[in-house]
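Quick question, first post here. What does this chain look like in 3D?
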Amino acid sequence: MFKTKPTLKREWERWFYGEDSQKLLLDCFWWYFLEKFPQSVREGDSQKEIQSRLFDRTSDTYIQLLFMSDLHQYRDTIVCTCYNYRFILEFSVKQCIVASYGATQLRGNILVSGLRLTSAVWFTCG
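> Answer (accepted):
Ran it through. Tokens below.
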């Protein structure tokens, strides 16, 4: 798709590497981290409350990415890539886990189990 439309590639990169996309990645990582390590929450804070706020912020950011960004003529094409975006986001969260815990910790690790299901539930279009 990008080979024949270099302008689309630039728009996609601007969209994907933009501030909202980065916020989405961080919020997904921390939500998932808290899901797997609930004991890491500071005393006095509620894990579910923090996750709820992260989820709300994630959904708001995702809607902003899809419908409120300045995409001009490629809006529909980029919005239709949301199916692929969830795989890219899932891979990115997994890479954050690798960077934090090392690749050797991932084989069969509790950290990555369920990541694909979570991203499928959260980011399925339609």
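The CA atoms of residues 27 and 54 lie 6 Å apart.
The radius of gyration is 16 Å.
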